[in-house]
Design brief:
- The protein is 43% helix and 15% strand.
- By secondary structure, the chain is an alpha/beta fold.
- An 8-stranded parallel beta barrel has the order 1-2-3-4-5-6-7-8, surrounded by 6 helices.
- The structure holds 2-phosphoglycolic acid (PGA).
- The site of 2-phosphoglycolic acid has 13 residues, from strand 8.
């Protein structure tokens, strides 16, 4: 397993937080703290913050992402945003299939797949989220479910497009709860995701793909999690709203 061959990606997921002015201020605060990062630094922000965030991040190593994207190019889809609208706004990354969208907004494995394809076809880099509940873990379905979700999300994605995919393993019980997976649980879950990629695309693709862990990663536990061979980065919620904490995580991924 050649972890050093993979680029670590630390991505913040701001969720439904920050006005445009607050977004710009937080990015200004983060810029000097993450400027020497030896990893990809991404901030996924609410749609209305994108313009301010792109402007604030200009000339820095911070890339701006969105938190969702619709799968149609245009049309009568009130309230939705297309992949082309995102690229035209300076967005480089998009999160697809976050568990909050699966739980609260009816996202399914099929719509996650459609959104992934639309985003990749528009030239975006996609952070695809997979995960399972505590109940599913206790029933022993972790490997089966993670492999299924991963393969479903990637259906129709070409080997070439896979280079623009990051997968985030996020145990649902660890998201926003302060209850983090152990380093070994994160490594195991990420390993199942990587094994699914190997089954679908071969060993070389599986070795090359960045697999993040997400769920209560913070300044204190990041180093242990990121030290695991299958953990190539993090998708960070709460701790990405604090410049100092986020920069410590970026620092841990840069070692
Ligand atoms: P959290 O969120 O870091 O606040 O647990 C992670 C996520 O939802 O991506």
């Amino acid at each position: 397993m050649k972890k050093e061959a993979r680029k670590a990606v630390i991505a913040g997921n701001w969720k439904m937080n920050k006005t445009p002015a607050e977004a710009a201020a937080l990015i200004e605060e983060m810029k000097p703290l993450v400027k020497d990062a030896d990893c990809e630094v991404v901030l996924c922000v609410p749609y209305v913050d994108i313009a301010a965030a792109v402007e604030a991040a200009k000339g820095s190593n911070i890339k701006i992402g969105a938190e969702n994207v619709h799968f149609k190019a245009s049309g009568a889809y009130t309230g939705e945003i297309s992949a082309e609208m995102l690229t035209a706004s300076g967005v480089e990354y998009v999160i697809v299939g976050h568990s909050e969208r699966r739980t609260y907004f009816g996202e399914t494995d099929q719509t996650v797949n459609l959104r992934t394809l639309a985003a990749l076809n528009a030239g975006l880099k996609v952070i695809v989220c997979v995960g399972k509940t505590l109940e599913q873990r206790e029933l022993g379905y972790t490997e089966t479910l993670l492999k299924y979700q991963t393969k479903m999300a990637l259906t129709g994605v070409t080997a070439e497009q896979l280079k623009n995919v990051v997968i985030a393993y996020e145990p649902v019980w660890a998201i926003g709860t302060g209850v983090v997976a152990t380093d070994d649980q994160a490594d195991e879950g990420n390993g199942f995701v990587r094994a699914a990629v190997a089954e679908a695309y071969g060993e070389a693709a599986a070795e090359a793909i960045t697999v993040q862990y997400g769920g209560s990663m913070n300044a204190k536990n990041a180093e242990g999690l990121l030290g695991k061979v299958n953990v190539d980065g993090g998708l960070i919620g709460g701790a990405s709203l604090k410049a100092a904490d986020f920069s410590v995580i970026v620092g841990a991924a840069s070692k």
